[in-house]
Amino acid sequence: MDCLGCRIANGIEPDLNLIYENEFVTCVLDIGPFNEGHVLILPKQHYLDIEELDSNTA
Ligand SMILES: [Zn+2]
């Protein structure tokens, strides 16, 4: 799994600031936030574009 987003979403990257997780997504605090509370919502399946998301993940 060479995609950083997928590694984070699937718990392979250490020291995550986990906010929320379900069967479709993992939500973590961004390590380089644009503002306080900047959260990344990462799908557990690999997608190249947000328009490719299946309806459950979206
Ligand atoms: Zn990926």
Order of helices and strands: HEEE
Summarize the main sheet. Answer: 3 strands, antiparallel
Number of helices, counting only DSSP H or I runs of 4 residues or more: 1
> Could you name the CATH topology?
HIT family, subunit A
Q: Unreliable stretches, pLDDT < 50, 5 or more residues?
A: none
Whole-number total of structural domains: 1
- The level 1 CATH classification is Alpha Beta
Q: What is the CATH architecture assignment? A: 2-Layer Sandwich
**Ligands, deduplicated:** zinc ion
Strand numbers in spatial order across the main sheet: 1-2-3
Instruction: Provide the CATH superfamily.
Output: HIT-like
Structural class: alpha+beta
Summarize the structure in words.
This protein has one helix at residues 4-9; strands spanning 18-21, 25-29, 39-43. By secondary structure, the protein is an alpha+beta fold. The protein has a single domain, classed as HIT-like (HIT family, subunit A), CATH 3.30.428. It has a three-stranded antiparallel beta sheet with strand order 1-2-3. The longest helix has 6 residues, at 4-9. The radius of gyration is 11 Å and the shape is globular. It starts with a helix and ends in a 15-residue tail after the last strand.
